[in-house]
Amino acid sequence: MYNRERILDKPYIHYVVIVVVCCFAFFINNQVIPADLMESRNLATAQEMVRTGNYLIPTMNGELRLEKPPLPTWIAAGIEHIAPGSLIVQRYASGIMATLMVVFLYLLVVEMTRNKKAALFSGLALATCFNVILMGRTATWDIYCHSFMLMAIYYLVLALKKEGAQWKNFLAAGIFMGLSFLSKGPVSFYALLLSFIIAYGFTFRPSLKKKVAPLITMILLCLVISFWWNVYLLLSHPEMMLYVAHKESSSWINYNVRPWYYYWKFAAEAGIWALFLITAIVSRQRSTTFKNSWRGSGDMYVFALTWFLSSLVLLSVIPEKKTRYLLPILIPGAILIGLYFYHSLSNLNKRIDKVIFKINATLVAIILLAIPVVLYVMFYRKGEMGLMLLILSAVLSWALCIYILRSTYAKAIRVESVFWGIVLSMMMIEAVCLDPIGDIFINADRNSIRLLRENDKVRGLPFFYNQDEKLRMELVYEVNQTLKPMDVTNDSLISANSPFVFVSGKPAEQLFAGKNVVIENIGEFDNNWRKTGSKRYNWDLVRNVVIVKKNQPSTVNDR
User: Fold this and answer.
1) DSSP 69
2) How confident is the model at residue 64 (pLDDT cuts 50, 70, 90)?
């Protein structure tokens, strides 16, 4: 036991464990989640960069897209050069950023507590939170801005904690703050950095002696990296930039407006850790063990709780709300979970504390007990899951269930074993259960318009769609073409662009009746990931594709 504990406490083992858990969390079965509208917008813009060679002024379907800073899109464009059209590889980039987020949270907690076990608990809790797994498995840009900001916060803590000017750490913090802004504007500055500054200042009251000059330099460096692209656009497209600035600022007030209490379900974003997160928030633990690692007084638990609550309040006062915006609160939330488990290793003395811990762990065990039953009812009986996979799921789920229950109801609660049982449970779900769960979403009859990429008949032809119909960006991404609107009543426009590919929900024969054109049918394409009959099945993703050509009159050569 002694040797095992010594081995597990070695730093390189911690990094290996983090990487392995992150591989399960962000990479294995990452194709299961269907591509959504946001992913399609992001990747369509990256594809268009590669297709047009225009990297400084992004466009989406031929129109300027200046709302989003370009750094993640540049990364996606680079991946498009290496692995054209690969959604899986694009998602790997998000997985790498999510892994870096976990690593830097581990480093941050190590630096602030001088305790590698508490740091490991915090990092693995973050890696297995539902919202973090979701963002790390999809090609969306939230994971970029918050990962870069957490890196900046780590170097900022180093700079503030250590004696002297700390130029290197301040400059590193400024660089990563700038990269965060280049990823998604001020989002992470507001939701993550501002709440960190509030918590850090309130809890530790750092000294700025000899640090004013490097701090100002950090801010200036951050501003240069953050705004050079905006300045370039302001000089090249001033009217459009002013319109975008007004649009984005008004969106925070007028778009997706929800009541201030909309985020009351915040714990659900932690997934399997939800009850433990709530317990950690209300447990009133005191991390006195960690005080000696700081110059002066300060309580790590108070810091993490203040950071968490500040972020939640700041997000709640903004009228625009979406559940994915809660990603940054999971960073201090994971610290709270990690501190709770570390605190519980030696402080589950009161009966109420033991009861609460047992309830939380037992509910996780019940979920594991139910997983094979759910898989049997929803998938195996319908022939959507093989017997061997069902058996494997049952064996692993019930083994982990027994392991957690034995650890929970032992004479002395084995807290660390419960923690590892939960982490292993998430790894099992990601490796074994995600694939059949994905069948809930996957449309077996899906016939993607992506097939046109390999169709020689349409290669080199311009693409149009019926301007009277809604164009979904998923179609633009999948076909990797610019789809221009066409007025089917405009004979001269039809003639000038013939031959062309036409995409429409209505029959082309009906739309072009009497237009003196020849219509060659390519096929009907259904780009829905959702199954027919689902509430989220979208008929705007079902389109007919034809080639429209001028009707050349036949000539008779009389002799």
Assistant:
1) -
2) confident
Structure tokens at 143: 């994971």
State the Cα–Cα distance between residues 546 and 176, nearest whole angstrom: 48
What b-and-e string marks burial along 467-478, b requiring 16 or more CB atoms within 10 Å of the CB?
A: eeeebbbbbbbb
List, in sequence order, the alpha helices (H) in 162-260: 167-184, 187-188, 194-204, 212-236, 238-254
- Helical pair 71-82 and 87-113, crossing angle rounded to 10 deg: 130
Q: Give which of 288, 338, 411, 407 is closest to 106, Cα–Cα.
A: 338
Distance from C-alpha of 542 to C-alpha of 472, rounded to nearest angstrom = 10
pTM reported for the whole predicted model: 0.91
- How far is it, in rounded angstroms, from Cα 448 to Cα 528? 8
348-402 pLDDT per residue, tens: 888 898 999 999 999 999 999 999 998 888 878 877 778 888 899 999 999 999 9
Question: Phi/psi of residue 504, each to 5°?
Answer: -155, 155
Q: What is the DSSP string of 261-326?
A: TGGGGGGGGGGGGHHHHHHHHHS----GGGGGGSSS---HHHHHHHHHHHHHHHHHHSSB--GGGG
Asked if 146 and 327 touch (Cβ cutoff 8 Å), the reply is yes
Closest to 84 measured CA to CA, from 37, 36, 51, 41: 51
Sheet with strand 517-526: strands edge to edge: 483-486, 463-466, 500-504, 542-550, 517-526
Do residues 305 and 287 lie in contact, with contact meaning Cβ atoms separated by under 8 Å? no
Q: Which residues on adjacent β-strands are paired with residue 60? A: 63
- Each domain of the chain, given as residue ranges in start order, spans 2-347, 351-438, 449-550
Q: Can you tell me the mean pLDDT for 88-111?
A: 96
Mean pLDDT for 467-477 is 93
Q: How far apart are CA 84 and CA 499, in angstroms?
A: 27
Which range (20-24, 148-152, 252-256, 481-485) has the least confidence? 252-256
Looking at residue 438, its pLDDT comes to 66
At 531 the pLDDT is: 75
